[in-house]
Amino acid sequence: MRVAAISDTHGRQNWEMPNCDVFIHAGDMTGSGSLQETAAFAARLRKEMESANGPPHAIIVPGNHDECFETLPRATRELFGPNVHVLEDEPLVLDGVTFYGSPWTTPFMLWRFMADESRLAMLYQNMPTSVDILVTHGPPHGILDPGWKVKHAGSMALAKAVADRQVRHHIFGHLHGAGGQLVQQGTRTFITSQRATKNTGLSINLACLKPTTVFEYLPKFHLRVGRIPMMPNACFTNLYSESSLWLQKNRRR
């Protein structure tokens, strides 16, 4: 299975669709949150999926800018095709791979899909004990989550939910300043889709300066390099640069 992931396109249509089996958007497809802007994204996605090399499945997790998913849920979901799976605190199994999607972030201004830590803790109770690929719009606390005027803006409840479960990969966006960074924390490595990893000592060639980042994912062993879990921040719009998709090549053995 080849999985491509992106987030925070905010209405821009200059993102790319590589050859993949599953396409993931981790939230903030729109800037305004309008039904019209969401329809434009849905039309672009549908066109890509119907092309000769288009992915058979797509997974969508709304973000805090995607207002119509919360205010007009039925009309918004009807914009997407039958193989576009909108995940709001729910699992999905494709070819034996378990995905789980959740749109929530910690409160900031008057956006959508925001909740305090106590409510987030209750929401994350629905998460299965074992998840191959977790997709959330917001990051966990302390992992690629620099905030505005705060050091960490990620959710502590999400961090605990991930720590308490077997999560192989965690894809998120939301905080643009973290895009394209790689950090190592204990035995885990957390990777994003923007910028080069030149200041890390890890022998992983992510080709981050190219439009698409490619690496191998082995379902039974996490990653070939170090066999350690990954947490990418898939932001497309970045404070420092614009890049393209985060692409994960997933091979079975």
Automatic annotation (TrEMBL):
Domain of life per record: Bacteria
InterPro entries: Calcineurin-like_PHP (IPR004843), Metallo-depent_PP-like (IPR029052), UPF0046_metallophosphoest (IPR051693)
Record-level Gene Ontology MF annotations: hydrolase activity
Signal sequence interval, chain numbering: none
Gene3D superfamilies associated with the record: 3.60.21.10
Segments forming domain Calcineurin-like phosphoesterase: 1-177
Listed PANTHER family: CALCINEURIN-LIKE PHOSPHOESTERASE DOMAIN-CONTAINING PROTEIN, METALLOPHOSPHOESTERASE
Protein name: Metallophosphoesterase
